Prior knowledge:
The protein has helices at residues 3-23, 30-43, 55-59, 62-82, 101-117, 119-138, 140-145, 148-167, 188-203, 238-259. The chain is mostly helical. α2 (30-43) crosses α6 (119-138), α2 packs across α9 (188-203) and α5 crosses α6 (119-138). The radius of gyration is 18 Å and the shape is globular. It starts with a helix and ends with a helix.
Amino acid sequence: xxxxxxxxxxxxxxxxxxxxxxxxxxxxxxxxxxxxxxxxxxxxxxxxxxxxxxxxxxxxxxxxxxxxxxxxxxxxxxxxxxxxxxxxxxxxxxxxxxxxxxxxxxxxxxxxxxxxxxxxxxxxxxxxxxxxxxxxxxxxxxxxxxxxxxxxxxxxxxxxxxxxxxxxxxxxxxxxxxxxxxxxxxxxxxxxxxxxxxxxxxxxxxxxxxxxxxxxxxxxxxxxxxxxxxxxxxxxxxxxxxxxxxxxxxxxxxxxxxxxxxx
Length: 263
């Protein structure tokens, strides 16, 4: 899928988690619902860090472009080192390592560890990165017409304000994980979810997605999971724009209403 659809699916997924959490008796404070949805929307773009033309490769200027090159080479090296006898030859690393459940867990877990060990500046850095990506994905038309500096300033300002809101008593810095020292441990959850939702979205397209790596399926270790081929679509097609994106908006709205106990 394309960037806007990925971001919408990420936000909708977190709002759905908010509804499920409310039903289970762990209602999210509204700042957690909002911040988590934005982080998840940004994280849903992150697996495409292995693609030089993806939204995330442009989001942070030369830094993200260089990081994209490194991740692509790393992903390709891992693919070559671990591919099974049935896996095809490749010339790049797109839709390999960063499009797996293992990568999602490692990135989300790393963010949680950074949040509880790195203090406020680590939290601000996590928020900044994902809020910039959320702007690039959810407001992509406006983001492309404005300068990168303005998007970065919006991300930095929003990160500072939202961190201040979360720090207020009862606003969610210690949501779900309540022991002393576990503040912001939950930040890794929307990052894991966003990466997984990205993979599921790509699995719906023609090429499929090797979500289960390194678990082998038959002679393939990088098996491109997906529905039957007649149910798949090409990225950017009318199915994505006319059907899936409106559906994500509706589902997100319903999830938000349920999470806030409006329904």
